[in-house]
Write a structure and sequence with these properties.
Keywords: DNA-binding. By secondary structure, the chain is mainly α. Helix content is 72%, strand content 0%.
Length: 178
Amino acid sequence: MKKTKEIIIDAFWQLLEEKPFNKITVQNIVERCALNRNTFYYHFQDIPNLAEYTVKLWADEIIQNNYEFGSPMTCLSPLVEEFIKYKKAFQHLYSSSQKDEFITYMNHVALHIVKMFMKQSSHYVSRSEDEKETLTHFYKCLMIGILIDWLECQGDYDLKLFVEKIYHLIDSSSQTLL
């Protein structure tokens, strides 16, 4: 059986798929969960606090479930799949007053994913620390840039196909980066 906190989080994401972030109220959430307001406030200070907590939880789950990656561009795959899965919710978060916090979390997630890849990849063992740092920053920026562009375009192109094309272009044209 799900814990109360998980039920609140699920209701929040469901609502975020349905309407903009700033239109979601505590009342909407507790009605969806069949809980009272005090229960919500026992777990979360307010809706921005809930949003922050859930994005961090989401990011931690992506990292934990995808610890081993094959190549730098495949680091992006777990994020892409989650973004597609919750497209409307991410669009609502991106266009909300929480946009800056959301982008900050995404930067942390992307950086963490790329760093984890770098630690495991035999391609980077012989690189200098400066080169590793430069490549880490490059791939993190690439990941976030792609995701932000997709959100800016209202998700009107096939994100997964776009990422696959980028991977093949980078892989075929620059084996030295990989």
